[in-house]
Design a protein that fits this description.
Helices cover 53% and strands 16% of the residues. The chain is α/β, with parallel strands linked by helices and 159 residues long. The protein has two domains: 38 residues; 120 residues, Rossmann fold, CATH 3.40.50.360. The chain has five helices and five strands; from the N terminus they run αβαββαβαβα. A five-stranded parallel sheet has the order 2-1-3-4-5, sandwiched between helices. This is Protein NrdI. Pfam families: Flavodoxin_NdrI. InterPro entries: Flavoprotein-like_sf, RNR_NrdI.
């Protein structure tokens, strides 16, 4: 009789713990979604797919131009031609440049002093830091540096 009561009580406690674990898991998932929303999104333009591949490797929330992002963001763009900013990026910045917090730029080192010049131009015009120049689709070290810099800016923006 007492054993049966203890078994039922134990089953009740285990059931309550299971419910609590499910609630905690739901709260953890909600917390993760909220944290992700606090992180600055990436807005990018990719002509050849290199910038898109780089952005995908960062694991961050990202939007491809011409998607509209009306919140602070980080821009990732290629340099085209001889140090030029792609026209879709220029048009986007005319409309949404006020939200820009930093820029990263892709290029090709074969262009020597013109490598990543589009990023310099954007940084200068909008008064934001150029946080990274990377070649083509970048490498693991580029992704690490980029995420480090964006995290630092996230901290500044969310204070």
């Amino acid at each position: 009789m007492i054993r049966d009561l203890l078994r039922r009580e134990l089953a009740d406690v285990e059931y309550a713990l299971r419910i609590k674990h499910e609630e905690i898991a739901k709260l953890d998932a909600r917390r993760a979604r909220l944290i992700e929303r606090l992180r600055l999104p990436i807005v990018y333009y990719s002509l050849t797919g290199n910038v898109r591949r780089f952005v995908e490797k960062t694991g961050r929330r990202a939007y491809q131009i011409p998607e509209i992002v009306a919140e602070p963001y980080i821009l990732v763009t290629p340099t085209i031609g001889f140090g030029e900013i792609p026209e879709p990026v220029t048009e986007y910045l005319r409309e949404y440049g006020g939200w820009l917090r930093a820029v990263a730029v892709s290029g090709n080192r074969n262009f020597g002093p013109l490598f990543g010049v589009a990023g310099e131009k954007i940084a200068r015009e909008y008064g934001v830091p150029l946080i990274l120049r990377f070649e083509l689709a970048g490498n693991d070290e580029d992704v690490r540096k980029f995420n480090e810099e964006v995290s630092r800016i996230d901290e500044e923006v969310t204070r």
